[in-house]
Amino acid sequence: MAKQSTEATQPEQQQYSTLREYFIATVYCTIIALFVTTYVVHPMTVPTPSMEPTILVGDRLLIDKFTFRNSFLDTPPLTPAHAISRGDIVVFKFPEEPEVLYVKRAIGLPGESLEIRNKQVYINGQALEEPYKVHSDTTIRGSGNPHFLSFDSQRDNFGPVTIPEGNYFMMGDNRDDSADSRYFGFLPRDYIVGRPMIVFWSYEDDDDAYKRTSLAEMAKLYAERVVFFFTRTRWSRTGHFVR
C-alpha cells in the first residue's frame, strides 16, 4: 500500500513542478520585458501628421531609450551615448500631459537665441537651413496678418527667445501642422524619453484614428486593421530607419 501511495503522489509532484517552472519563467520574462521597455527599447505609434513626410501617421516605431539618457548621466565607459544635436528627432513626454508621448525634431539647443520670421528659423541671428521641413500653407501668420485663433499668430513669427540651460526648442517637420515648442514652450531635458530608431510596422490609419476613444470605436478600428492588414500596410516602410 505504501508503494502505491508513493506512485500516486509522483504525478502530482511532477504537475506541481511543471506549474512552478511555468510560473517562474513567466515572472522572469515579465521582469525582463519591463526592464527592456523601461530602459532600453519601447514601441510607439504615431497618430498625427506633425512629422510628415519624415514620419507618417500610422508608423509604429521602436524607441531607443538608452543612448540619449546616457548622455545626461555618468555612465560606465564604452556604454553607448549620444548627446542631443540640432536636427535630432526626439521622443519626449508632452509637458502638459506627461503620460502622452510626442515626437519632434530638436531645433534650438540650450543657451541659443531662436527667432522665427516669416516661417524662417534663425539661430543666434543666422538663418537655419532645414531640408527636412515642409510647409502646407503659404499664408504668413502674425506680423499684421491676424488669425481667428490668437495663439496661431506665433506659428510663422515667434520670438526672439533665449533657450534656458537644460531645455530644448522642438518643432515638427510638417511645420504648418505641428503642436510644438511654439505653443507648449521649451522642453525640459528630464522629459526626454529617447529617439526613434526604426519603423517596425506602418499601417495607413485614418488621420482621426487617434480620436476614437469609445469602446465601440476602438473595436471597429481594430477590426479594420485586421481586415485591411495586407492592403493598408505600408510594406516599403517596414525596417525603415528614422533620420
How many beta-strand elements? 12
* CATH-defined superfamily of the largest domain: Umud Fragment, subunit A
User: How is the CATH topology of the largest domain named?
Assistant: Umud Fragment, subunit A
Can you write the helix and strand succession as a string?
HEEHEEEEEEEHEEHHE
Mean pLDDT: 80
The rounded distance between the terminal residues' Cα atoms is 74 Å
Cα Rg: 24 Å
Estimate percent helicity.
25-40%
For the record, the CATH class of the largest domain is Mainly Beta
As for the number of domains, it is 2
Structural class: alpha+beta
Q: Mind describing the biggest β-sheet? A: 8 strands, antiparallel
How much of the polypeptide forms β-strand, as a percent range?
25-35%
In short:
Helices cover 27% and strands 27% of the residues. It is α+β, with helices and mostly antiparallel strands and 243 residues long. The chain folds into 2 domains: 1-39; 42-241, Ribbon (Umud Fragment, subunit A), CATH 2.10.109.
Task: Set down the secondary structure blueprint.
Elements: H1 2-39, E1 41-45, E2 59-64, H2 67-72, E3 89-94, E4 97-108, E5 113-117, E6 120-123, E7 126-127, E8 158-162, E9 167-171, H3 181-184, E10 187-188, E11 192-202, H4 215-227, H5 229-232, E12 240-241
Antiparallel strand pairs: 1-2, 2-11, 3-4, 3-11, 4-9, 5-6, 5-8, 6-7, 9-10, 11-12
